[in-house]
Design goal:
The complex is a heterodimer of chains A (111) and B (114). Chain A is mostly beta strands and 111 residues long. Chain A has no helices and 11 strands. In chain A, a hairpin with a 5-residue loop joins strand 4 and strand 5. By secondary structure, chain B is mainly beta. Classes of the chains: A mainly beta (111), B mainly beta (114).
Amino acid sequence: AQSVTQLGSHVSVSEGALVLLRCNYSSSVPPYLFWYVQYPNQGLQLLLKYTTGATLVKGINGFEAEFKKSETSFHLTKPSAHMSDAAEYFCAVSDDNDMRFGAGTRLTVKP
Amino acid sequence: DTAVSQTPKYLVTQMGNDKSIKCEQNLGHDTMYWYKQDSKKFLKIMFSYNNKELIINETVPNRFSPKSPDKAHLNLHINSLELGDSAVYFCASSQESQGRNTIYFGEGSWLTVV
């Protein structure tokens, strides 16, 4: 069985500061890994995903994530936070059968 | 055009009522889903459905039932609504069964049971 743990249910950064949202997974097979973002009163939309190949994945809105097999991690980063980045972020892991979502991390951006 | 659309977006209803949420996807996907998001933002899959197979999360009460008139639609019917059913319900779709495919979500339906 696979699972996802997002460390920190709430992260607060200042505008212009580095954003780091942590995600660790467990999977018995090589995983596919995803980050989704949910803006207030909206559905989830895909930020980026890792399937195979290059372990550093770039997504929309300046976000990127690095797959580290040795650490079973897929942390999401952005060099400089913008006010519009305030949202809920979900990490997800999938195998051949299903996709499991983490509990989410709420990102707050202070002016 | 919205890829996955669901209606209504907001629904307030009384306990005991029966209600439906409609969902349509125009992506040509084979698989559709219903997810429930609780007040703590935790996402739980309720159903996944394609032409061949309906997979039901065993923890979902049988008051909830999906109905698919065709590949592009998956409606959610809820009978005898209870206070605990208040949540946001998301319809979603993917090219094939859940597995390794990107899932595309609708904008959600906010259900409040009073």
